[in-house]
Amino acid sequence: MMLCPEVVLFDMDGVLYDSMPNHAIAWQKAMQKFGIRMSAMDAYATEGMRGVDTIRIMVKEQQGRDISEAEAQEMYDEKTRQFGLLPTAPVMEGVISLMQKIRRDGLQIGIVTGSGQRPLIERALTDFRDFVDDRHIVTAYDVKHGKPAPDPYLMGLQKAGNLRPDQGIVVENAPLGVRAGVAARIFTVAVNSGPLPDSVLRDAGANLVFESMPAWRDAWDDFYLQTSGNVKAD
């Protein structure tokens, strides 16, 4: 398909905020209280999935039982509590200047997150108030099927004005999020801000992989110039 970009859809954790180390700690502490083993690598590997879905899968795998979404939500609430006890994660280096370039070029900006933690959403609305508003944010509670299903990014296109997949660009850092963008048939850029090798993101289907957000920011001008000339996505 050809690209005619009108919106850039950003994941939140590990993309807008350098928050994944905190999430990994919170997941491990919270799940330990319920007898669930969860490593830091598990947290990175499942990043982007709705928290309640992650919990239901891990309970099934480790305890052999199916739990309701309500029970999973109670466990996720503990994870949210643990996260709130940790130091505030900083805004990812380079992301503000990248957004300035995107808006300069006339594109909309949206946020598509698997998080359902309202304090994080409110913080994003404050920190990125010059670029995005509440109408352009997709959270875990906006979709029934979270990442890696395409639903969150398709909802992001819908909120941006019922756009087509070729009118969007996804910015992700996690394999499940990349798979969601690819499943939605949107050009997907991966910024590797975590411990996973680049190959994991490429194998998930990322069209481009950058080592950092500043690297993606610095590549934006040439990338957008090429997209204006109809860059072909896989």
From TrEMBL:
Supply the InterPro entries for this chain. Answer: HAD-like_sf, HAD-like_SPP, HAD-SF_hydro_IA, HAD_2, HAD_sf, PGP-like_dom2
Source taxon at top rank: Bacteria
The UniProt GO MF terms for this protein read: sugar-phosphatase activity
UniProt cross-references to Gene3D superfamilies, sorted A to Z = HAD superfamily/HAD-like, Putative phosphatase, domain 2
Pfam families attached to this UniProt entry: HAD_2
Entries under PANTHER family matching the protein = FRUCTOSE-1-PHOSPHATE PHOSPHATASE, GLYCEROL-1-PHOSPHATE PHOSPHOHYDROLASE 1-RELATED
**What is this protein called in UniProt?**
Beta-phosphoglucomutase
